[in-house]
Amino acid sequence: MTPAQLTAAGWTCIHPLRFPALVLCAPPGTGLPPLPGTPGFADRLPSYEFLVFESAAGAFLGTEHLLRPDIYQQGQPPCPQQPGGQYLYNPRNDTWFCNRLGVDPSA
């Protein structure tokens, strides 16, 4: 599937500010994590899973897993796909994320 097909099927797809060459798609019913200070932030899900695509060609790259800080701190799971094997913190949405792309999106 492509981001356009997913969007047509009710998924939410965005270009993240931090990595604009990517497209992140969240499934219907889950959506994106609310940002701090917005409605729903206090009641957000413990985790989120996105499909990740390359923006220009729409090629599927892998998945990204996000955890709320309280969930991450309980076990600090490994993220073998990232250098150092650790989740990275995203202050914009206050989550820890594991990029399971097999590529470095910042390269």
Characterization of the model:
With 107 residues, the protein is mainly beta. It is built from 2 helices and 6 strands. Strand 1 (12-14) and strand 2 form a beta hairpin. It is globular, with a radius of gyration of 14 Å. The mean pLDDT is 89.
What is this entry, summarized?
The protein has 107 residues and is mostly beta strands. The chain has helices at 3-8, 69-75, and strands at 12-14, 22-26, 47-54, 60-67, 88-90, 95-100.
Strand content: 25-35%
Mean pLDDT equals 89
Secondary-structure-derived class: mainly beta
The coarse overall form would be: globular
Spatially, the strands of the biggest sheet line up as 1-2-3-4-6-5
Largest sheet: 6 strands, antiparallel
Radius of gyration: 14 Å
Blueprint of the fold:
Blueprint: H1 3-8, E1 12-14, E2 22-26, E3 47-54, E4 60-67, H2 69-75, E5 88-90, E6 95-100
Antiparallel strand pairs: 1-2, 2-3, 3-4, 4-6, 5-6
Highlighted features:
mainly beta; 12% helix; globular; six-stranded antiparallel sheet; 31% strand; 2 helices; single chain; 107 residues
